[in-house]
Design goal:
Order of helices and strands: EHEHEHEHEHEEEEHEHHEE
Strand content: 15-25%
Number of domains: 2
Radius of gyration: 17 Å
CATH topology of the largest domain: Rossmann fold
Helix content: 40-55%
Largest sheet: 5 strands, parallel
Number of strands: 12
CATH class of the largest domain: Alpha Beta
């Protein structure tokens, strides 16, 4: 994780410098951009390990930057942490719908930002180091290739969606509470972010299509991957 490269796209210079300083103090190499077009071009050229992305940017806004990164063949697997003053649930859902891996609102704690970055990179690395492919009927999850096939169809998942699916499927038949998922998939345990889990599950079910009902909601608790056996 040390020496990982983080691209920060932020037009408020004071915030940009605070983020830059704290990430460098944590051992990261930092690239900086102050508008969306510059940030997108820098991400395509440098292939950072993670992008910290403001939503309200001059030129190309953060939503469009994220959308283009997630659609690009060479950038779609770069995790994105959105950093923004837009704090409503609707804004968070929109961010996740276009592929963001996490969401932090302003004002924020620089320490929490660093912890979020570390958690995202850690779970991304765990996916690369994971075990052999997991096969459950028509679902095949291959951690090494970061690929998922559902009914013979390739699914395009973000790093977080992939980790969430793998975690649930590898524990088929067992209930996973939202708190457990936050701790084991996101790498942190903040009760206020439980809706983050729900948003990702909705997005994951949509991508699973005909297999969406394999992820069951356990009312008042969390989720369970249905064991067909």
């Amino acid at each position: 994780m040390a020496q990982a490269t983080i691209l920060v796209v932020e037009d408020e210079i004071d915030i940009l410098e605070v983020v830059d300083f704290n990430l460098q103090q944590a051992g990261f190499k930092v690239l900086k951009a102050t508008d969306g077009g510059e940030g997108h071009a820098l991400a395509r050229r440098e292939h950072p390990d993670l992008v910290v992305l403001d939503l309200m940017l001059p030129g190309m806004d953060g939503k469009e930057v994220c959308r283009r990164l997630k659609q690009g063949e060479d950038t779609r697997h770069i995790p994105v942490l959105m950093l923004t003053a837009l704090s409503s649930e609707t804004d968070r859902i929109i961010g996740f719908e276009i592929g963001a891996d996490d969401y932090l609102t302003k004002p924020f704690s620089p320490r929490e930002l660093v912890l979020r970055v570390q958690a995202i990179l850690r779970r991304f690395q765990e996916q690369e180091d994971a075990a052999a492919p997991l096969k459950l009927d028509d679902l095949v999850i291959d951690p090494e290739r970061h690929s998922v096939k559902a009914g013979g169809r390739d699914l395009d998942l973000t790093a977080t969606e992939f980790k969430l699916l793998y975690h649930l499927a590898s524990r088929a038949g067992r209930v996973q509470t939202r708190q457990m998922l936050l701790e084991r998939v996101w790498g942190y345990a903040y009760e206020g972010y439980a809706r983050t889990v729900d948003t990702h599950v909705r997005r994951l079910r949509k991508k699973l299509g005909d297999l969406s009902d394999r992820i069951e909601t356990v009312r008042g608790m969390g989720y369970r991957f249905r064991d067909e056996s």
